């Protein structure tokens, strides 16, 4: 029995409105709640099933090499499974993300792209092919 009921990734975005617009309206995450505090606000977006992937430095470097061709990720990278990585990459690029690497077929039989997104996150979009 797991003691954890939910994984919630929290980012602090200097341009809050742009980040909410990107993740909610462009990527398509569903807004589940929004709250205001004195002088501030937060929006909680539902990203479906969550997992925590822990990699050692050698494996992280290997994934960067496969997806991008060089080491580019910091210690945190957020990955979203999408039904069409090519379409989603283009849509996110049009919505404010910078494409680091176009969709590439990986040895683990997925199509992965890499982007720099609002809020300072590096994203992998992946489409399972197998």
From TrEMBL:
Q: Which Pfam families match?
A: Glyoxalase (PF00903)
Domain of life according to the entry: Bacteria
Q: Which PROSITE patterns match?
A: VOC (PS51819)
Task: Outline the extent of the VOC domain.
Answer: 5-128
UniProt protein name: VOC family protein
- Lineage of the native species? Bacteria, Bacillati, Actinomycetota, Actinomycetes, Jatrophihabitantales
